[in-house]
Amino acid sequence: MTTHDDDLSRFEADGAAPLPVTNDQGYIEHDGARIWYATYGFGSPVILLHGGLGHSGNWGYQVPALIKSGYRTILIDSRGHGRSTRDARPFMYELMASDVSAVMDALHVEKAAIVGWSDGACTALILAMKAPERVAGVFFFGCNMDPSGTKEVEFSPILKRCFGRHARDYAQLSATPDQFEAFADAVGKMMKTEPNYSAEELA
């Protein structure tokens, strides 16, 4: 069945599709943070990295399809997002990439394909540049190569619905549920200064 939610009204009201149930989930302690992960299925590993202000639950439609296609699907809440915590340092894509490597180590995953959306795409590309031997391939979408691609936010009705959903999810999942505004500001500061890929690095 095909569904459409072009104005994000359904997403605002209900969130993404629920994730499948798994017993293989938990936290790792890494570099000042507790990083949440979950795994599903068997086969070649695929890691899904969500966008800024979101969390792994945003992949609710993709996880069942990947399981059905025979992939071991790994979700990670980026540091400070969803169920994962953070320390007092500013958000940095390189730090998030190191968290992904740490989860891979904990799960004994030597190499994985990575799907990244927005901030998750920036993280995936940095991991692929820093540790190419660990990345089988990257599918990335919705990211920029340097801060010049970041525009001032204009809160259209659709964007307001998206932010509203993120705020509710943050309040439900985060260890600091009343700090969404500060969290969003900190993520925004990262987006205004990172990433800084060169054309040669992306070639």
Ranges with pLDDT <50 over ≥5 residues? none
Task: Determine and state the CATH class.
Answer: Alpha Beta
Number of structural domains: 1
Helix content estimate: 25-40%
Query: Average pLDDT across residues?
Result: 94
Question: Can you walk me through this structure?
Answer:
The protein has one domain: 3-Layer(aba) Sandwich (Rossmann fold), CATH 3.40.50.1820. 36% of the residues lie in helices and 19% in strands. The chain contains seven helices and six strands; from the N terminus they run H-E-E-E-H-E-H-E-H-E-H-H-H. A six-stranded mixed beta sheet has the order 1-2-4-3-5-6, with helices on both faces. Strand 1 (25-30) and strand 2 (33-40) form a beta hairpin. Helix 3 crosses helix 4 (119-130). The protein is globular and about 40 Å long. The protein starts with 8 loop residues before the first helix and ends with a helix.
Question: Which characteristics define this entry?
Answer:
six-stranded mixed sheet, 203 residues, Rossmann fold, alpha/beta
Task: Describe the secondary structure blueprint for this structure.
Elements: H1 9-14, E1 25-30, E2 33-40, E3 44-49, H2 62-68, E4 71-76, H3 93-106, E5 112-117, H4 119-130, E6 135-141, H5 157-173, H6 180-193, H7 199-202
Parallel strand pairs: 3-4, 3-5, 5-6
Antiparallel strand pairs: 1-2, 2-4
Helix pairs in contact: 3-4
Put the structure in a nutshell.
The chain has seven helices and six strands.
